[in-house]
């Protein structure tokens, strides 16, 4: 039946599946429209060093403002475009938008490392490096180190050599930084850690969320920190929602953090004000003082 073509394919008519196919096409069309109608925006979530209180960066997170349905979160529409050309187009939009924002902030004296999430299909697409290169080239005065690519560690990254070559170019030729996102949730975290040129490991928020109650999650974070140390990688903890989370991470030697307990993702325009009003968590600062340096 693999050979059925043309006319014969109609024998495979399956109302339910065809309905799904039609629906998927409609959704893809709608998302394509949304891109040309400028309905997407990047929100930014600050990243801080809990020990010093300093804000050093922000993660760009896509939002869809649908004219009728309102705000649609990324996990409600990104899976629909997964593995399609549209995923590359949106990914390219995200990179260009983030670069514009970095430059805009730098004009205002705000220097932050901005990380963008990169879908593995996009990363592996033939034109990824060319598009990234030209995106960077349109901001010649920008030091590329202010851009970080977050690679989802849990995604099927495909051929490790291919991906390593792409990331090597990003890092060594273009000068952008690389982070392994949601580290520890994938099938081959250690292989990725060993083989991919990532500067930073992002500890998945589920480990952080559970570490206070679950000794296993605590142990996993401990282990990741030790690994990061031996591999000479930076670490940032995601999902820091409370002062307790931060204190426990600090006690383990993990200083960089991101989470609702610091700030929720916000529109780019809110960042300068947020920075202006930002007050570091005193308990985190104090706990830092008790450490060796
Ligand atoms: P992620 O990259 O792991 O991003 C972290 C997610 O956790 C974000 O959800 C963020 O809003 C949320 N978060 C941050 N701090 C906390 C916290 O303290 N508690 C809780 N419960 N959640 C927290 P968001 O924005 O809904 O994004 C979800 C995922 O969608 C992202 O996970 C990322 O994988 C993907 N994504 C978002 N924007 C983009 C994008 O521009 N491109 C691609 N390819 N993927 C994106
Ligand atoms: Mg991320
Ligand atoms: Mg993450
Ligand atoms: Mg995630």
UniProtKB/TrEMBL annotation:
Domain of life: Bacteria
Protein's cellular compartments: Membrane
Residue ranges of every copy of the EAL domain listed in the record: 24-279
Protein name listed in UniProt: Putative Diguanylate cyclase
Lineage, opening ranks: Bacteria, Pseudomonadati, Pseudomonadota, Gammaproteobacteria, Alteromonadales
Full protein stretch here: 747 to 1039 of 1044
